[in-house]
Amino acid sequence: MRPVRLRFAPSPTGPLHIGGVRTALYNYLYARKNQGTFILRIEDTDQGRYVKGAESYIIESLEWLGIEFDESPAKGGDFGPYRQSERKALYQEYTDQLIKSGAAYYAFDSSEELEAMRKKFNEQGVHSPKYDANTRMTMRNSLTMTPEEVIDQLEKGDNVVVRLKLDPGQLVAFSDVVRGEVAFNTSELDDKVLLKGDGMPTYHMANVVDDFLMEISHVVRGEEWLSSTAHHVLLYRALGWEDKMPTFAHLPLILNPTGKGKLSKRAGAKFGFPVFPLSWQAETEEDSFEGFREYGFDADATLNFLAFLGWNPGSKQEIFSREELVGAFSLDGIVKSGARFDIDKAKWFNQQYILQSTAKDLLPRVKSLLENKGVEKNDSFLLRFIELMKERVTLIPDFYEVASYFFSAEFDYDEKTIRKKWKGDNIDDIKQLFSLIETIETWNSETLQNTIKGFIQENGLSFGNILPLVRIATSGTMKGPDVFEMMALLDKADMVKRLRESLVKFDAVKEQASQS
Ligand code: GLU
C-alpha cells in the first residue's frame, strides 16, 4: 500500500468559497482517518488572476476551523516548495520531456488567429471548434512548421505555448470513487495548453506534475474538475507515470438553498447569509462578503455542517465532534447528487453546539461579543447570564441581539401584550405588586418567585394576567428566560427603576389604544 497523502490545492484568486472549505475538510478527514499526510499546495501560476490577501485568507479560514496541514508553504516539508510559482523550472523540465517524446508541441498562434480559426470552422458547420486534431494542422505550430521556422519563432518568443497532442477517437477511462467508471472520448477534448507564453504552466500541467512529485495518493476535489481529469490521465500516461496515478474522488456540487443551480458567491448577498468562512473586504461592496465566523457561527458547528454537505455517515447521528468525524469519514459516504446549501441546517448545528457547551466554554466568546458592544460585566454575572440564555440563542451574537435588556434599560416594549393585559382591575393590583417587589430584601429568584406568586394567589388573581406584565416591565418582551431568575440576576435598584418607569409606559400605551 502506498502512503496516504492528500493535498488541498487552492488558487489564490479571491476568498475561499465555502465549497472550497468543504473540499479541504474532506481531504483533511480522509488523511487523518488513514494516518496519512495532509498537504497545502498553493496553485498560483495564473498571475493574471492572483489576488493579494487571498493566500492569507485561505490559511486563516482553515486555521479558524482547525483544519491543520502537515506540509505547507509555512511549515515546509520534504516535497517543497509548496507554492507553484516557486517550482517553475520543474514544469519546464517535464514539458520539454513531452515535446521530445512527441506528446506535446509548440504553438505560436495569436489570439486573433485563434479567433479566426474558430470563426472559420464555425462557418464550416463545426460545432464549437477547438484546437484539436481537426484544426491544428491549419494553425501555426511545430506540427505544421519546419524545424527552422520553429526555432525562429521560439527565438522571437511571441505567443509561444506548449500544447498536449491528443489522438482523436480514443477512449480515456478512469474510475472515480464517487462517480464510478468515467470515460471521455478524446475527440471531445482539446489540445490543452500546458505551458504559457510567460513560461508558467497551466493548472493542468502544474497540478499533474506536483501530484506526482508530491506522491499524492488521493485527489479529492470539486466536480468541476471531472472533465479535466481526462487530460490529467493522458498526461500521466505521456509522462510514463500511469502506475502512480492517484485515486480520484470528485465531490458533488453545492446547490443554492432553493435546490436549483450551483451555489454562487453572490448567493450570500441574495439570500442574506454567508457563503464564505470569513468576511472578505474588497474595494467594492459587491465583491465584499460576510463570513460564517463573523456571522457568529462556531468553528466546530461549521465543520459539522460542512461535513454533511455531500457526505453522510450511513447512520442517523448528526452531531459529530471533530474526532468522531475523523473516525466516521469515508469516501464511500460521499453522495453523488448535488448537496443543497441549507442555512437553517447550519443554524441548527450551531444551536446544538451551544446547547452542548457549558457556560464556561461560551464565556470567552460572549464576553468579547459584549465588550465590542461596550458592555462590561464580571464573569460570575456572565456565567449566570449564559446559563439563562443558552437555550434561547442560535448564534453567539444572539446573546446580545435578543438579550440586550440584560445590559440596558433602553428597550422596546411589547405593546401588543400591554394592550391586552393592562386594563380593568389589573391595574391597581399590578401597582400594588410592584410596590411589594420594592420591599423585597433578599434579592434572589426564590424570594422573588415566592413574593410574586404568593401575591397573585392571595389576591385570587391569575398568573396569566399578571406575570406577563412583570415580564414586560422588566425586559420589554415576552420571549425570555425564567423571569424570576432574570430579575434576580439584575440588581434590585435597576429592577425597581424599570418597574416604576413601566407604569408610565403602560398608561401611555393604554391612552393611545383608547384614542385609536
Ligand atoms: N487549483 C485548483 C483549484 O483552485 C485545484 C483543483 C484540484 O484540486 O485539482 O481548485
The percentage of residues in β strands lies in: 5-15%
Question: Which secondary-structure class do the elements indicate?
Answer: mainly alpha
- Strand tally: 11
Uncertain segments of ≥5 residues (pLDDT<50)? none
Number of helices: 21
Terminus-to-terminus distance: 81 Å
Q: Which range best describes the helical content: under 10%, 10-25%, 25-40%, 40-55%, 55-70% or over 70%?
A: 40-55%
Q: Major beta sheet, specifics?
A: 3 strands, antiparallel
Instruction: Specify Rg, calculated over alpha carbons.
Output: 32 Å
Shape: elongated
Explain this structure:
- It is a single chain.
- The chain has 516 residues and is mainly alpha-helical.
- The protein contains 21 helices and eleven strands.
- The protein has helices spanning 18-33, 54-64, 88-101, 111-123, 147-156, 203-213, 226-238, 267-271, 292-295, 299-307, 322-328, 343-356, 359-372, 379-389, 398-401, 415-421, 426-438, 445-458, 463-475, 483-489, 492-515, and strands spanning 5-8, 37-40, 104-107, 161-164, 171-176, 180-185, 193-195, 218-222, 247-251, 254-255, 339-340.
- The strands form five sheets. The protein has a three-stranded antiparallel sheet with strand order 3-4-7.
- Helix 7 links the parallel strand 8 and strand 9.
- Helix 13 (359-372) crosses helix 14 and helix 18 crosses helix 20.
- It binds glutamic acid.
- Glutamic acid is lined by residues 9-11, 43, 203, 207, 221, 225.
